[in-house]
Amino acid sequence: MFVERLDVKVASDMDLGAVLAGAGVPGFVPGNADAHTRIEGDNTDVGFVLGGLFSLDENTHIGLTYRSAMQHKISGGSARFDADTPTGAAALGLLRSRGLFVDSAGRATLELPAVATVSVTHRINDKWTVMAELSRTGWSKFDQVVVRLDSGQSLPLDFGYEDTTFGSVGADYRVSDTLTLCGGLAYDQTPTTAAHRDTRVPDATRKLVSLGLTWTPSPKTEYNLGYTHAFASDPKIDLVTNYGSTLAGSYDLQADVLAGSFTYRF
Fold first, then answer.
1. Using an 8 Å Cβ cutoff, are 136 and 113 in contact?
2. How far apart are CA 232 and CA 42, in angstroms?
3. CA dist., res. 105 & res. 82, Å (int)
4. Measured between alpha carbons, how far is 130 from 132 in angstroms, rounded to an integer?
């Protein structure tokens, strides 16, 4: 069992000029009356993890784990609306007179995905050990979140996520009793799609290469050093928002991770 705390803060820009122009209100055109939304909420829920380790022989081991999905029911959230320009404030005031975009408490249900993983380790000989892992994450449950306000308005947050697969292979090479080298390759699929990708998560599927070493100069001390580089295509955004405006662009996505650790055994 585990306890998960969720604290959500989502900010969005709204093209109210497009909304009012579409309704035929004079003086408003797309882009001349922007406003902002800020949604906040929190919840604590309990989940579970199941797992097992199975040994085919003394050199081959298989691990299975399942982490449950989490359904967070937020009941004490809030939504706030404001504008930075006189035109935006005028548009916001006009829509508030019609019962829209009124500051209000609200509620929403947000489901985070279950994850199933299988991993295999096989020791070939005293020098070489190979590993592999495959996991599946049920991100399709995170398709849309609807925030329902006490004012009567509903705010849909479209994510359009899809289920993802992560796979990796790696190997350890024992150079000596004190030094082990390691390396691996991984494929990490993004849950985002071109139809729903936005600026909050401009993500793309990644291919990763990792190298590392473990140095154990004495029975009590151990040093670990690792480096990972992520290769990814630059994600593109071509999105029509809920307010009728278009968001288009591209991102430069790259990542390098350097990690180290030191262990001292008493």
1. no
2. 33
3. 15
4. 7
Phi, psi for residue 61 in degrees, rounded to 5: -130, 140
d(CA 215, CA 225): 9
Backbone angles phi, psi at 259, to 5 degrees: -135, 150
The residues that bridge with 70 in the sheet, in sequence order, are 112
**In angstroms, rounded to a whole number, what is the distance separating the alpha carbons of residues 69 and 137?**
10
CATH code at position 198: 2.40.160.60
Of 126, 128, 135, 211, residue with least CA distance to 167? 135
pTM for this predicted structure: 0.82
- β-strands 221-232, 236-240 pairing: unpaired
CA distance 116 to 137: 7
Domain of 249 in residue numbering reads as 2-264
Q: Look at 9-18, 42-51, 99-108, 112-121 and tell me which has the smallest mean pLDDT.
A: 9-18
Q: What is the domain count for the chain? A: 1
Question: What residues are paired with 108 via a beta bridge?
Answer: 74
Give the whole-angstrom CA distance, residue 168 versus residue 196.
27
Q: Which stretches does DSSP call E strand in 83-142?
A: 104-112, 115-123, 128-137
Return the residue matching tokens 């796979």: 167
Which residues share a beta bridge with 53? 63
Cβ neighbours for 90, distance < 8 A, ≥ 6 positions apart: 33
Mean pLDDT of 228-253: 77
